Amino acid sequence: MKTIDEYINEILRHVECDQADRDELAEEMRSHLLQAKEHYQLKGETEEQAIALAIADFGGDQEVGEQLQRSLFPYRKELLVLLGGGSILFAALAYLHGAVQLAEPHSLWMTIVILSGLGFLLLALFPAYMGNRKLLMNLYLAGQIPFYFLGLLIIDTGTQAYIMPLQLFGGGLILLTLTLVVLTALKTPVEKKLSKKKEQKRKGVHLFNLLAGIVIVGFAGFFLAGLLIFAGLTVYMLFPLGLIVFWALSYWWQYEAAKKNSPWMWVGAGLTVCMMIMFVVVYMR
């Protein structure tokens, strides 16, 4: 028979939240279940029967967990499933186009995009693994955008009737990814009662880096795709890849500095702007 704590842990497996949120939610559910248990014991039930009845009244662990997840992150599961399934389908269709029409199957690209899509599906099924990893989640999402751009370049080589719908499909995946990035960034942890100033600073860091990420990842993705198409694997690929890594590290640095109200946040933002300007100047030359 399940204990109350085991039941609560099974519920929280379906909820994306950090440890502080987990502790708060667990305490609230434990209090409710203990009250229900005492109610049944006063009616003459044994302790085991009272626990079983309290759990039955509360609901199935998956159902309750998914309701909590939906209240914290509305439609997150559906969007991740859509992005994961869409990524796999887009990779397969672009691969077939390259293999049949161009005799260039792009197997490595397809493998990366399919594995990424499977990752999104797993995150939809097991959201607890992304609890307290908001920044990592956003970096994972943003990291897929260059591969979607590369897929668009692969299918842009054809004039068949299916090319336009496939391009719209790929563009939709990019928009969906950016939507998830924004929703993830702007979600405030439920246990944190932030001051208005701190909340504005936190959201400012996220929005600035999201906009910077669109520029950096977009330019780097096109640059990287061009190198792959015209030069193949080359050492020059380290430049756009390094730019994306720099943006990710700067994002993390600013986020940590903002939590501590450190002026180093502005240093990180300034370095990001300088890197963007330098990259655009080099790219346009």
From TrEMBL:
This is Permease prefix domain 1-containing protein. It comes from the Bacteria. The keyword Iron does not apply. The chain crosses the membrane at residues 79-96, 108-128, 135-155, 161-186, 207-229, 235-253, 265-284. NCBIfam families: perm_prefix_1. The keyword Zinc does not apply. Keywords: Membrane, Transmembrane, Transmembrane helix. Signal peptide: none annotated. The lineage of its organism: Bacteria, Bacillati, Bacillota, Bacilli, Bacillales. InterPro entries: Perm_prefix_1.
